[in-house]
């Protein structure tokens, strides 16, 4: 099981700027926990996401000497991918491709077709930089805008991504609309149709809904799950304040209950939980 910790997603919508030195302390603590991947920052316009305008400074302060955790940075366009390509420390570049035309425009000021063109360009850049592109399918479980959605449409998007050579696709429950049933149905369908692709679950949920969603993903065969300590975060372009990331501590508890075993540094995890209160309150 690959656990992806997403402090970037947790921090990006905060109103008050988290000081760079505090971000660095928090991320360095998370790097000692033993997560597979740390979604640590983004190379996007500071006008759009001012909270992460210091990503390059933060990266310079990270201690990667004793960790196996890989770094992931989100980009919203080719320019961001070019910036990310300049850092050998970054193994993954993430791009949000929306299933909803309305949300794609809202999130990146592009149509879906324009975004597909950009995905191809970013994939080329990432391969050249020795990085791997992770495509997040925003609104991957439906949308509130009335735009077309179906599991077959997710498959059609995935087929286009597979033809570009993209190996990791993460359907994302941007506004928390998924249910355990829709999660299991979608991932069973995708895993059977695209066995060569690694599928990740980037789910958002209301309080109390995490465990059932994780179990549904597990039943479908998913072995890559995103979370954030205490369930902080969610998309700032969405509107439901109660819908946050899956709480990492609840993901871990659920996985243990389901017999999934992995090794984390419990002391570092406890320190990160304590420090998260300083970052987010």
UniProtKB/TrEMBL annotation:
Matching Pfam families: HMGL-like
GO molecular function: hydroxymethylglutaryl-CoA lyase activity; metal ion binding
Residues covered by the Pyruvate carboxyltransferase domain: 1-270
Keywords on record: Lyase, Metal-binding
Top-level division of the source organism's lineage: Bacteria
Gene3D superfamilies: Aldolase class I
Keyword Endoplasmic reticulum listed: no
Keyword Metal-binding: yes
Gene Ontology biological process: ketone body biosynthetic process; L-leucine catabolic process
InterPro entries: Aldolase_TIM (IPR013785), HMGL (IPR043594), PYR_CT (IPR000891)
Protein family membership: Belongs to the HMG-CoA lyase family.
The protein's name in its UniProt record: Hydroxymethylglutaryl-CoA lyase
Lineage, uppermost ranks: Bacteria, Pseudomonadati, Bacteroidota, Cytophagia, Cytophagales
């Amino acid at each position: 099981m690959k656990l992806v910790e997403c402090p970037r997603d947790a921090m990006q919508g905060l109103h008050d700027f988290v000081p760079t030195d505090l971000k660095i302390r928090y991320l360095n603590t998370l790097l000692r926990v033993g997560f597979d991947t740390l979604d640590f920052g983004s190379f996007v316009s500071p006008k759009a996401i001012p909270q992460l305008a210091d990503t390059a400074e933060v990266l310079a302060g990270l201690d990667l000497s004793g960790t196996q955790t890989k770094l992931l940075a989100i980009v919203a366009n080719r320019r961001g991918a070019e910036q990310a390509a300049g850092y050998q420390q970054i193994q993954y570049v993430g791009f949000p491709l929306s299933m909803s035309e309305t949300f794609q425009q809202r999130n990146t000021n592009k149509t879906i077709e324009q975004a597909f063109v950009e995905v191809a360009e970013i994939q080329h850049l990432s391969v050249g930089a020795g990085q791997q592109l992770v495509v997040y399918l925003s609104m991957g479980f439906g949308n509130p805008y009335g735009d077309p959605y179906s599991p077959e449409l997710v498959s059609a998007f995935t087929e286009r991504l597979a033809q570009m050579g993209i190996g990791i696709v993460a359907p994302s429950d941007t506004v928390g609309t998924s249910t355990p049933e829709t999660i299991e149905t979608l991932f069973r369908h995708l895993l059977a149709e695209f066995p060569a692709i690694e599928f990740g679950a980037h789910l958002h949920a209301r309080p109390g809904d995490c465990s059932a969603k994780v179990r549904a993903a597990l039943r479908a065969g998913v072995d890559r799950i995103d979370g954030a300590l205490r369930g902080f975060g969610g998309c700032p372009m969405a509107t439901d304040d109660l819908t946050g990331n899956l709480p990492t501590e609840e993901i871990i508890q659920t996985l243990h209950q389901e017999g999934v075993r992995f090794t984390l540094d419990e002391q570092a995890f406890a320190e990160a939980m304590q420090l998260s209160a300083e970052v987010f309150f």
